[in-house]
Amino acid sequence: MKIMIELEEALELVLSRIQPVETECVSLSDAYKRVLAMDVTSQMPMPPFERSPLDGYAYLAKADDPPTLQLNVVSEIPAGTFPDRVIELGEAAKIYTGAPIPPGANCVVRIEDTELVGDKVTILRPVLPGSNLIPRGEEIKTGDLLLKRGFVLTPPAIGLLAAVGRDQVTVYRRPRVGLLSTGTELMDVGQALSPAKIYNSNSYSLRGMLQDAGCEVMVIPIVPDKIDETLEVLGRLVDTDVVISTGGASVGDYDIMRHALAEFGCEMLFWKLNLKPGTPVSVGQKGKQFFFSLSGNPAAAMVTFELLVRPALHKLAGRTTAEEEKFLVKMASGFGKTGKQRRFLRAQAVFKNGHIWADLAPAQGSGILRSMIGSQMLVDVPANHGCVEPGELLMASWIAD
Question: Fewest C-beta in 10 Å: which of 134, 166, 248, 386?
Answer without folding.
Answer: 386
